[in-house]
Design a protein that fits this description.
Blueprint: H1 4-7, E1 44-50, H2 55-74, H3 84-87, H4 95-112, E2 115-118, E3 125-130, H5 136-149, E4 159-165, E5 167-170, H6 173-188, E6 193-198, E7 201-206, E8 236-244, H7 251-262, E9 267-268, E10 275-285, H8 299-306, E11 307-316, H9 328-335
Parallel strand pairs: 8-9, 8-10
Antiparallel strand pairs: 1-3, 1-4, 2-3, 5-11, 6-7, 10-11
Helix pairs in contact: 5-9, 6-7
């Protein structure tokens, strides 16, 4: 009879588990890094204020609310963010290929979304990037008008004010001038073209293309003998700035520079304006998940690199005050809108 000691499996070296007791290798899914969208020069979007400590809930309800409004305004096709390639899946694919397709479909959906939330480190403030066909000024104005007339039920709980931005840029003097020229030109300088006197010649500068008032659609302007622009409609305007967490630019300097870029024959009228120019300047922090790995020599250098000074500009009409400065919560309260539970 064979000795029992020979039947036993040989133990491994001291400190190592026997071969029959080795653990099975567990399958782990590869982690996908999610990168939040960032505010880039040339972007358009909507600043949003909300209740304290409700930024996450407000982001969720606003995505649904904005998409519902976009479907009503522009049709169903604009809110379909999933590509056909992501939808058409082969049932014979293995699990890993199916997961990869699902992830790709989610990424495509996020890239094609009409409204993309940007992660900010500012209490009670959100920002949504928009893409065509959404034009932030007309979109927000229509949302507020329908809320005031009672055409739409109240579906938001934490949203306060909506501030549309026709164009975004870095918070520097040069970028302020670039953004201002693009935004001001369609309204103040006729159909997006500014004619400036440069020596003895006329220089044309293209403007930012968005919805124009009817009286802006005029023939191309000509320089008068005095060097001013002829065939231009004189407008009364006001400038309103919002600066938060930012000390790089001063309010008075912004107002003076924007007023100079508006130019004559337009005049400033703080009470009876035709056009209100909104300028918002914020200091936002980039999402840590999307920041590159860099070794910093000091805490100050790291903070300055992650912080982003941004500015945005838009032009709204004289009904801005009537619409409670686009404060959706105040509009709903004043109109007695019924909430949807």
């Amino acid at each position: 009879m064979m000795d029992e000691s020979r039947k036993r499996k040989t133990d491994g070296p001291p400190g190592q588990e026997p071969m029959d007791k080795k653990k099975k290798k567990q399958w782990q899914m590869p982690k996908k890094k999610f990168s939040w969208p960032q505010i880039e020069p040339g972007d358009a979007g909507i600043w949003v204020t909300c209740d304290m400590h409700k930024e996450g809930l407000c982001t969720v309800e606003l995505k649904d609310f904005f998409n519902e409004c976009a479907t009503s305004f522009y049709g169903d096709s604009t809110t379909d963010g999933v590509s056909a390639e992501a939808k058409g899946r082969d049932s014979n694919d293995d699990i890993e290929a199916e997961i990869n397709k699902e992830v790709k479909g989610m990424q495509d959906s996020e890239q094609e979304a009409l409204f993309a939330p940007v992660k900010l480190d500012i209490p009670c403030v959100l920002f949504f990037k928009t893409r065509e066909p959404v034009e932030p000024v007309t979109f927000v104005q229509r949302v507020c008008e329908e809320a005031m007339t009672g055409e739409a039920r109240r579906t938001t709980r934490f949203v306060k004010r909506l501030t549309p931005m026709a164009r975004m840029g870095k918070a520097t003097e040069k970028n302020l001038e670039d953004v201002a020229k693009a935004v001001l030109a369609p309204v103040f300088h006729a159909e997006g073209t500014v004619a400036q006197k440069v020596g003895s010649s006329t220089k044309l500068i293209s403007g930012y293309n968005y919805h124009l008032p009817d009286d802006c659609r005029k023939p191309p302007m000509q320089l008068s003998r005095r060097g001013h622009l002829a065939n231009m409609i004189e407008r009364q305007f006001a400038i309103r700035t919002t600066i938060r967490n930012n000390h790089a630019m001063k309010r008075d300097d912004i107002i003076k520079r924007v007023a100079d870029l508006v130019g004559g024959p337009h005049t400033v009228d703080l009470n009876n304006y035709n056009q209100l120019i909104l300028v918002d300047v914020y200091r936002v922090s980039a999402s840590p998940t999307s920041a590159p790995v860099v070794v910093y020599t000091s805490i100050t250098a790291a903070a300055n690199d992650l912080d982003q000074n941004v500015l945005g500009m838009s032009i709204v009409g004289p009904d801005h005050e009537k619409l409670k400065r686009f404060n959706l919560a105040e509009i709903y309260d004043a109109s007695g809108a019924i909430s949807e539970d």
